[in-house]
Amino acid sequence: MSTLYSSRDILGSTKLFSSSSKTEKTLNAELGFHIGIQYMIPAKIDQDLKNLAKVWVMENPHMIHLLDLLEMDNSNVCPFSGKCQVPCLQTSGRLVFTKSQIAMLKRRLLFAYSMKYNPAIYFDLLCEYIEKELRKAQKLGLQLAVRLNGTSDIRYERLNMRTGKQDAPISGSSIIRKFPNVQFYDYTKFPNFLRISWMPWENYHLTYSYNEKTTPHEIESNFKAKRNIAVVFRNELPNLIMFNGNLIEVINGDEHDLRLPSIDGTSKFIGLTAKGKAKTDYSGFVNDYTETKNGNYYNLDATLQNRMVA
Question: What does the alpha-carbon distance between residue 175 and residue 138 come to, in Å, rounded to a whole number?
């Protein structure tokens, strides 16, 4: 391609980070943080995404060829998504609106385009946004927290900003390394052995997302790495979850988005209630618990055993 598009060519007026509601901002401030979250359309190429792309192309016909990037391997921004694809977070809250969906599509196109042609197109803008939010946080007397994977699962600790390639097991040229005074955090579905368990930088914390493929070994390895594990429930959240015969505390993850050890502790379960299409999902991604039926704890041991039998 002879002429490269700029980040502004692709994003237009869309911002890289989404803003929180007034309630979320107030709560984050109470916890001592100013927060920024980046949402992209995740990996699944389905009819909904194709329809969304048609809307975008009507406004940007000269960029129709960029949609080919969505079929490329390097544009798969959530490689371990499974049954959660349909009830993804993008089907809940403000993310369901077409304007928000288009914004997420633009961010994904920007990321895929940049990683193919010139990583600086994306990373220069990302650094600009982080620096801007950092100044805002400092003015408010707060620490900046950034969740880069709002609806994606990119290994930013490996992603080299200069090459756009994955360095193993971590990259000294990553965005995490560049901003040691920013607290980064994410949810991930990557198996523990595919993401470094001994993160050398204290400013990046991962919470593992329990799913229909999670094994007892995966839970144990994440707890050993001092990660918490997020579990989605349909209606109610239990206070405790039984795993390996032990009752383990459940943190209410609906109260705020900040998944940090300084707030949640480590090696615990994070309970989340199903949102959007997830409320009617029975694939195994969403778990059913009611206090009147199950008592004061959720028996994860039984769930895992039943899965192995099936």
Answer: 19
